Amino acid sequence: MRRVAGRTRVRGFSLIELIIVVAVTIILAGMAVPAFGTTLARMRIQTNASQMVQDLRLVRDSAITYQQDLYVYVCVTPTAAQRTTYFAEVSQKYPLTGVHYSPGTDTSVSDAFEKRTLLYNMVCGLPVQSGGAAYSYTSADTVTAGVNTYLVLVFHCGQGSYFRGQPTLLDGTFSGTIWIPMQDSANQPTRYWYVGISPTGEPSSSGVRP
């Protein structure tokens, strides 16, 4: 820095220095964008999984509280377009007669029967068991509504031979933990997240394939 005619001259950046700074900024931004995209995709699929865990826990707790066996319907129709929804029952339609809500004929009723549509165009994959093999069930464990077929999960209230909150399929059986995959095909490679229901009825979620 030197004084010229009573004024102070401050040396600025050269053109080369500015070009280097801009180039480094672009490189760093390019490195950050893929990481941000991965984080955003993970947050989206976790949002769906967390909602399902919350709904399953609510159904289980409601079965215990209201002393009613309550159902969860998970669409298992092969086409992906029809596996975007599931239904959670938190009280029976007619408790005195044991009639349940139906995904085919009943609309959502506040605090009684909730229809959930997965966000971000994601779908529920076909249920699997620990180890990754397809979960075994029969037509006796499903109900059909229109063109859709639903696997029915029952949370028991504790009557008969079932303990409070115990999950079974519609035929009364339950073999190990059942995992329902959340599938996000919008991002490549396809991303999965898993919602599990243990033999005790406690729901959980995991990003690791069972």
UniProtKB/TrEMBL annotation:
The chain crosses the membrane at residues 12-36. Keywords: Membrane, Transmembrane, Transmembrane helix. Signal peptide: none annotated. The lineage of its organism: Bacteria, Pseudomonadati, Caldisericota/Cryosericota group, Candidatus Cryosericota, Candidatus Cryosericia. This is Prepilin-type N-terminal cleavage/methylation domain-containing protein. It comes from the Bacteria.
